[in-house]
């Protein structure tokens, strides 16, 4: 991907994060909405001027340099944290809370508005997360995540252990009888081929969830709800059944 194409991709990402549209860009640049759409298409990257990029970055509340840095950072995102970094997160519940909020694109104002955390404490934790490399704290207390799209917690790491032993029991304690809740348990006997097909479908569902999460970022935070989806599959039978198998 060319540098300009990456910048255009970053502009589109910023528009989503700030709940802005092509119409907002059109008003700021005194252009038609159709012209803006053409301007931001990857195939037209070579024709966009520095002046136009500067105008767009200003309407996004960024300097041109910040926009370029953001675009450059896209290719340097973290795919995982180090073991010691995850341990540091789970050692402090408030730090972990701020990290999860930041990962879900909350602003520092939204964090202190929703939780009993002072502004000073919130900024202290954001600076800690900046030091860990999970995010960059920009002027105006703006948060820029340093995570790749395929970022994930370490397998069997401190974060997964935390949610498995503390989060999952709480998650599964619900009765799952509300309209926006669902719990399904299915058991059957499948061939290797059928298992591969099912695994592919589960990966597609996980990808769809991530896509809908990104799409939802355009909505105000009051209209977004923390939602958890548990996907699990393995060869299994109840222990009591296994105990009765012939050796």
Helix content: 40-55%
Inertia-based shape: globular
Q: Structural class per helix/strand content?
A: mainly alpha
Biggest sheet record = 2 strands, antiparallel
Strand runs, count: 2
First-last Cα distance:
58 Å
N-to-C SSE string, H for helix and E for strand: HHHHHHHHHEEHHH
Percentage of β-strand residues: under 5%
Contiguous helical run count: 12
Strand order across the biggest sheet? 1-2
Radius of gyration (CA) equals 22 Å
> What is the arithmetic mean of pLDDT?
88
List the uncertain runs. Answer: none
What does this protein look like?
Strand 1 and strand 2 form a beta hairpin. The protein is globular and about 75 Å long. It is built from twelve helices and two strands, in the order H-H-H-H-H-H-H-H-H-E-E-H-H-H.
Q: Can you give me a brief rundown of this structure?
A:
The protein has 247 residues and is mainly α. It is built from 12 helices and 2 strands, in the order H-H-H-H-H-H-H-H-H-E-E-H-H-H.
